[in-house]
Design a protein that fits this description.
Elements: E1 2-8, H1 16-25, E2 27-32, H2 40-51, E3 58-61, E4 63-65, E5 68-69, H3 72-75, H4 81-87, H5 89-105, E6 110-111, H6 123-126, H7 135-150, E7 156-161, H8 182-192, E8 197-201, H9 220-223, E9 234-236, H10 250-260, E10 264-267, H11 274-287, H12 289-302, H13 315-328
Parallel strand pairs: 1-2, 1-10, 2-3, 3-6, 7-8, 8-9, 9-10
Antiparallel strand pairs: 4-5
């Protein structure tokens, strides 16, 4: 099993060729996007098929509320984290409950949420994805948000370490540089860390943490700071992002992230690269003892993640919780 890889899939169902490839590659996780969501029955069938793959990979989704809502076609609009936080802790917790209930209904194991970046006037805050403008506010609101999601047995992921709040550009397209507050903002991740919560590492330069040349996700100096955190696995953000454009090929980025101490890497959209990434990293690991050790540690850390028992949640309950989240955030039912 290549537990260190989480990847995307192409559409509403697994064709024979894609199923065979995934059976051979045995990724540790599969990430769903809007392209994978048709109707409720279809999504239940797709998630079931993914769970039948060797090693039973966890199935994950980015479901935050606001603009990051891969289930919009089924759930409709949801308040953003910023909108919910402005309405208070109850609104944030109910938003989390709506997300957790939706994931549980479809047997989705992991929600790559919440964003716990401190809103400091940077790009991500302008997207409505931040829960507060101070570390204390983010911890307070994120605790309620996490309580809501985790109430349904869904695993979570704190992102984007050490905090993208001051980054002025979108890491999907360019490489942000974080200001001196990054050393303060990373405290949020420590305070929220728990064994069932992964931490996703950003693609950003962080001079204040001793790394001015290499993105955090590829840096031993930055990723190594998480070694003492009581968290779940450490996941590098999607390796295809523009922020990593000058840092080698996808296989090279994967090896660098794993060598830096990440336990899993994401290849979400470049589906033709799934096999080349696995073959290259596996090949290099036979000659590089440190990389081989990193892959073994990754498998150990990922075994329990996203393996919790999910309750049966009826769709009517999901709809009701989503409506309440909208109401509390001032969006109406």
């Amino acid at each position: 099993m290549n537990a260190w890889l989480a990847c995307g899939v192409s559409g509403h169902e697994l064709g024979d060729d894609e199923r065979q490839q995934l059976e051979e590659l045995a990724p540790g996780g599969v990430v769903l996007f809007a392209r994978n969501v048709g109707d409720r029955e279809q999504l239940v069938d797709l998630v079931g098929a993914l769970h039948e793959l060797p090693g039973r990979p966890y199935v994950a989704i980015d479901l935050e509320g606001g603009r990051v809502n891969r289930l919009r076609a089924l759930l409709g609009e949801l308040p953003s984290p910023t909108q919910a936080a402005a309405a208070g802790g109850e609104a944030v917790e109910v938003l989390g409950e709506a997300l957790g209930a939706a994931c549980a209904h479809f047997a989705i194991d992991v929600d790559y949420a919440p964003v716990v970046d401190v809103g400091r006037g940077g790009y991500i805050g302008g997207e409505g994805r931040c829960l507060g403008e101070s570390p204390a506010a983010v911890v307070r609101m994120a605790t309620r948000y996490l309580d809501g999601i985790e109430r349904f047995g869904v695993a979570t992921c704190l992102k984007h370490y050490p905090g993208l709040g001051s980054g002025e550009v979108d890491s999907h397209h360019a490489l942000p540089e974080l200001d001196e507050e990054a050393g303060v903002d990373e405290e949020v991740f420590l305070r929220l860390s728990a064994p069932g919560r992964a931490v996703m590492v950003a693609h950003a330069l962080v001079p204040s943490l001793g790394e001015a040349c290499c993105p955090a996700s590829l840096s031993r100096a930055v990723v190594g700071r998480l070694a003492g955190y009581p968290c779940g696995p450490v996941i590098a953000d999607d390796l295809e992002m523009g922020a990593l454009g000058r840092y080698g090929s996808l296989p090279e980025r994967a090896a660098a992230a794993l060598g830096a101490g990440c336990h899993q890497v994401l290849v979400c959209n470049a589906l033709a690269m799934r096999r080349p990434v696995v073959e290259a990293v596996r090949g290099w690991a036979t000659a590089d003892a440190a990389l081989g050790t990193a892959l073994g540690e990754a498998e150990r850390r990922l075994v329990p993640y996203g393996r919790g028992a999910l309750p049966v949640v009826e769709w009517d309950e999901v709809v009701a919780r989503a409506a309440k989240a909208r109401e509390l955030a001032g969006m109406g039912a």
